[in-house]
Queue: 3 jobs
Job 1
Amino acid sequence: MIVNSSTTKRFLLGKMNKLAALLLFFLLGLHAAPQLAAQEQKPGIFYRITGNGLKDTSWLFGTYHLVKSSFLDEMPAVKKAFASSGGVVVEIIADPAEAEAVQSMGMLQNQQLSDLLDQPFRDSLDAELKSSVGAGLEQLNQFKPMNVTLTLSLVHMMKNQAALLGKYTGLPLDAWFATKGKESAKEVKPLETLRQQMELLFNSSPLEEQVLGLKTFIRRKKEMTGLGDELIKNWFEQDMRAMNAVYEKTLQVSGEEDRLIKERNINWMKVVPQWIQQGSHFIAVGALHLGGEYGLVEQLKKLGYTVVPANPK
């Protein structure tokens, strides 16, 4: 389907709020959702937090940002833990006014994307955009390279995984927890602002590095999407170790630094311990923030908390 320039821009700007919390290669693909193991509780996506002087149990749940909230019907223990918690912690709280104000952060100023590209890559990118988005480089010429990469990631995921994503209805998981928390008169606390997320995505690396990332995605698209398939499969299987392995491999393939996970986790740990000491909280963040050396699970354990996998059923 061919889309005119203004329609394309409205579509892509409308997606930027969603994209702000998404990792580059982790939105892609799953052909079927495997059955979850019912017996052994290995490191997964749902944890109970106790100990270290806590009077009330808190909970940690790793989301997949584009899965809709009806998925939680398959996880009654998660919904029960959420209902019993006094407070809710999410990555961001949606603010339409802020979203409007930060839209331009994904756009180039006083130059065009084509100015940053050599002619052979302009041609290959133009062909990819026309094939995937329905609009060529000319229509997306004001977008920063990272914005184009994220857009292509989203488009490929939506195309390849329409059946899976269409299976679930409602709000995206993160938005559901924030919305239901407010409706239930719980205190909903954001770990960061949308502006901070957009700054990290679009302004934390030079345009030259963003171009290299875009080239990597185009030239190694099959490998990138394959890693995405692996990751979402691991998410549905609740296999945090496998998710971490895929993430490490993705960093190697993309050449990216660990800005989207490690640095943000370090910042989040400046406030999370304070909040859970104040009372029971349900913490819902992207699943990749949970595992690994700098994951929230390990960081909380280092502070003396008991963090154990919980059965979401």
Job 2
Amino acid sequence: MEKYEQAELDYIAGMKYKEIAEKYETSVNTVKSWKQRYNWVREKRNSRDVKKECAHKNKKVCTQKIKGAAVSDETEKEQVFDNTENPALDERKKLFCLFYSQTFNATQSYQKAYGCSLNTARAHGYELLRNVEVKSEIEHLTELKRQQLLAKESDFVELQMRIAFADAGDYYAIKGDKIVWKDSDQTDTQLVREAKTVKGDISLSLYDKQKAIDWLTKYFLMHPDDKYKAEFDKKRAEVKDDSAEQILANMQIITDVLKNPVPNRKIEDLEGDEESEQTGTTE
């Protein structure tokens, strides 16, 4: 289940934008864009059924704080362990797996998890890595970390998509002879670089669309299977790209020169011929 699908269940159940954003570690504007893009509607399902579905999909977790574990101030907090993942491991082994998946240092991870001396950690850290259950749990945590990184990358791609195809008209409305700002709840404010009203005139500046398009073009060349590529290609096709048309025209000119060599002929001459054909005039 995609992140935005899980967020939709929470929205239907009655959660606010801010609460959903905090739960899925994203911005309020991203949540708003999900709502608009995927047409979330609160009356879509009975809230009681949605809550049951959410409860069914969320795994049960318990929090444990290990006494005696030598953990730094930054990491000395409650660690969340999933009981269903690997019940064969005790809490200290789970701590070791957690620390190792972050640092890939067996000695340091063992010392933090067990609160022992450096010599003891050196003696037992790599030995613990040979444990089949420990190895399996580390692989699981590493994969989770990889998926989180991919999710963050996906969020950035989505942001670039929104910037690339943003419409300034979404931010204001015309009422009679006046132009007024739309309510912030109805707009994606994350795309606005600057917005102000000067002497009754509205001034709006969005982030650079062309830079976003250039970045996405390069990104999709390297990631042709990305889920956003089809949407990007579709929207690009809907938008007239004069620069692309000019490039194609120049390529056609060069091709004609190569196919029809004429002594002392210049590209400028061919461009002139092309203009004559378009206007229907001859010399």
Job 3
Amino acid sequence: MSELHNDTDLGASPNPADERRKQLAALIPEAFSEGRLDVAALKRALGEHAVIEGGERYALNWAGKSDAYRVLQTPSTATLRPQRDQSVNFDTAQHVFIEGENLEVLKVLQKAYFGKVKLIYIDPPYNTGSDSFIYPDRFQESKEDYLRRINDLNDDGTLMREGFFRKNSKENGHYHSNWLSMMLPRLYIARNLLREDGVIFVSCDDHEVHNLRCLMNEVFGDENFVATVIWQKVYSPKNSARHFSEDHDYVVVYARRAETWQPALLPRTGEMEARYDNPDDDPRGPWKPGDLSARNYYGEGTYAITCPSGRVIDGPPSGRYWAISKDKLLELDADKRIWWGKDGNNVPAIKRFLSEVKHGRVPQTLWKYEEVGHTQEAKKELVSLVDFPNSDAVFDTPKPTRLIRQMLRLGTDRKGGDIVLDFFGGSATTLQAVLEQNAEDGGDRRCVVVQLPEPVEGGSQSLRTIADIARTRGRNAIASLRQRADLATPVDAGLGFKAFTLAPSNFKQWRGDGIDTAEQLAEQIQLFAKSEKDGAAVEDMLYELLLKFGQELTTPIEPLEVAGGRVFAIHERKMIFVLESFSEAMIDPLVAMKPREIIAIDGVFNDSDMLKTNLDLQCRDAGIRFTCL
């Protein structure tokens, strides 16, 4: 069970195309020949034999689509570096904030969070003509160019506006294409991250909602479309509007599997409760009358009825039928479920008891600002938590936390540790919404927010980037919750978030290109005498390896002192990482812990093959998987 090396690639994230190819091969093995996809065989397996003349078919196409897929399939060699000084309660926090370009971050997260996210909410650029966003327009780049791009920062830590970050103006001939090319790879990875019972909500407006629907159909499948919600974002019309006052945005909703996904019921409103009364003091509680007639034909629904007062009703109202048989009416009346009016003289109505209706209401596709908030409310929330130097630095179109909390109620469970992801994090409204919803209902939802270090115009020294604003909001939202006495659930003392930043890998990347001579090969081999880069911090390597081995960033880590050395354990010591100097004395106590796997970097053995071999042999004897990187 032991091996000195495994197939874990320290240099690159999983290739989405490879993952999907493996899934397809497992599902339809006959569609593959010698490891390659046979399209004709795939069509045969699916029962598709018709030939479409001219090769034409309905599809969404745009300039750069093939390149966008190429970007999707290009692995990332980046990692996430922990930032303790930017975090709140780093060691115990269950929420994560990541600063970095979101496509690279998604690729880095893919192995650790594949199929684990319950709800995704994103508020991407609306492509109004003044938005700046990253879109793929460089598809052949060297390693050095790539590393410069993922670490494309000025000396002061802000993202440079050169390179990928640029304005997408309407005058650009690829105006819509650029937006689609930016969105496609991110949505594909988002789908990979969703659980089978997961759901994604995407905010947009009229600029791209039509393209978004088509793109989401391609990525998620049109059969998984759930709804397009209209959010009333303003509380009064804009009289300065040229044509119509734009009072709403959209929230497009897709499930991972709409066939089985079911939204939770929303809390009933006071207005809905007020419709129920109890004029006859029925011990079953408040009720409201329901019509006993219907338009649909019913053969037994034309009988005459005698009221308790003696009045005879010849039959149902004109053009209608009683909805139940006469025997059923008598049965319900005997159970005091029929209301004849105070004088016993009215057309009968069935009593629908509040205690017997669903404990909630079905969500609708119109979300009014009274229920989920509006843009001005969102701005007030933001400025109450972030001390902006001037009004220019405040976002124009933030989302209210009530809007996102509505989504959380619909798409997450209170308990179970559901993961909520927002990779267009903005000012971290989603983080605040998760914090507040957990505080209100005692939930244990976990949040992962990703945001670029995008410069803020008019920002201060402490608020130079949107990522700075997001972290500040998160810190102050946590502090505010701790001071509130009206919460049903006391705020956990360990409440916080782990902060990370996108960074180059801590491990060396093997370069097969450019090696033409034996001397160059020897030089490359010498370079790889140890896998880690010089100066790589132990904690940085630990979190990179957690991700590479499919572990979440909030996985509890237990440092252990072993025979004068230190190792790191997770999952009740089932997996142990050896990242610091290792000695012979550590072997026996380490093996005695009976972990399932021990992972070590080659440099800890100080060039002693004997020490490494001894550990390997003892792991073999104990049935422990040993991986040396």
